[in-house]
Design brief:
This protein is of the alpha/beta class and about 300 residues long. The protein has a single domain, classed as Alpha-Beta Barrel (TIM Barrel). The chain is about 45% helix and about 15% strand. The strands form three sheets. It has an eight-stranded parallel barrel. Strands 5-6 form a two-stranded antiparallel ribbon. The chain has a two-stranded antiparallel ribbon with strand order 10-11. Strand 1, helix 1 and strand 2 form a beta-alpha-beta unit. Helix 4 packs across helix 5. The radius of gyration is 22 Å and the shape is globular.
């Protein structure tokens, strides 16, 4: 049975080749897997065989690194066609890529490069996102990236830029909490102020990852456990936005699968607290509704008596 319908819940992990055999053998208790889109675009071969078997039992999210939404060049239609075919096959719950540019003049930098935060850039990237969504016939998520330089031309904060793009493109947000922390440290920003600006209705997924703290600057590395500071920021994010589906990103120096699952369980414990709080609020609202209804009835009976 293909389970890629509905929505994601809980905390998933990335499906990486180092863990393929263990995943297929042990079938870990995990709510979903995320895969890098480009790793599965070629038809045939072991990666597609593994994903075929995984997608039968788990929901899957597709996460790309090559749309180059911020590039001044047109969208790569051949790439979009390959992505569309992959989507038709996988039937993912979510499809995402990064709010950045990755190349110029036919050269792929294989890096996620930052954009200037200007109104002009908002209009440009929002138009390209709408083109992608029209081509794929579905809404996508865009992710905030880590950055180590700023443009003198920027006139907006990163959070204001994100919000403007989400609204103008009518797309959703994949919030990388580690990147939010890294940028705050590197550029002297307040991650809490950024969270205050983000629209709750567009936040569909969260990423968590490790980084390298060099004191004067922080590098997003995805090669270790989530730091204590990022866990604290994640907890604040969940308190504000509720139990948003979350993913542990660990792409280099991969540990045994059990260590990765332990990170996911830590996120699940934070999500569970938010779910409990939501249930309390819903119960209180239902109780208030019953009290209000009873009060109305009492007033009506009193009026009849008069």
């Amino acid at each position: 049975m293909n389970r890629n319908a509905g929505r994601l819940t809980g905390c998933g992990i990335g499906l990486r080749k180092e863990h393929h055999d263990t995943v297929l053998k042990e079938r870990p208790r995990i709510p979903f897997f995320e895969v890098i889109s480009e790793n599965f675009m070629a038809e045939g071969g072991r990666p597609r065989d593994v994903l075929e078997r995984v997608r039968r039992d788990y929901p899957v999210a597709l996460h790309g690194v090559s749309l180059s939404l911020g590039s001044a060049e047109p969208l790569d239609r051949a790439y979009l066609a390959r992505l569309a075919r992959l989507i038709d096959w996988v039937r993912p719950v979510l499809v995402s890529d990064h709010l950045c540019w990755t190349g110029l003049g036919g050269h792929n930098s294989h890096d996620l490069l930052p954009m200037p935060f200007t109104e002009e850039a908002v209009t440009h990237v929002a138009r390209k996102i709408r083109e992608v969504q029209d081509f794929l016939e579905r809404r996508i998520l865009v992710e905030n990236i880590s950055s180590y330089v700023e443009y003198r031309e920027s006139t907006l904060s990163e959070a204001d830029f994100l919000v403007a793009v989400l609204e103008e493109a009518d797309c959703d947000l994949l919030l990388d909490v580690n990147n939010l922390y890294v940028n705050a440290r590197n550029h002297g920003l307040s991650p809490e102020e950024a969270l205050d600006l983000l629209p709750p209705g567009r936040l569909r997924q969260i990423h968590l990852a490790g980084h390298e703290d060099n004191g004067a600057f922080v590098v997003d590395t995805h090669d270790g456990p989530v730091s204590g500071a990022v866990w604290d920021l994640y907890r604040q994010t969940i308190e504000r936005f509720g139990p948003v589906p979350t993913l542990i990103e660990w792409d280099a120096q991969l540990p045994p699968l059990g260590d990765l699952l332990e990170e996911a369980r830590r996120a699940e414990s934070i999500l569970a607290t938010a779910i409990s709080d939501d249930e309390v609020r819903r119960s209180a609202a239902r109780a208030l509704g019953r009290c209000t209804a009873e009060a109305v009835c009492e007033v009506a009976h009193a009026a009849d008596a008069i």
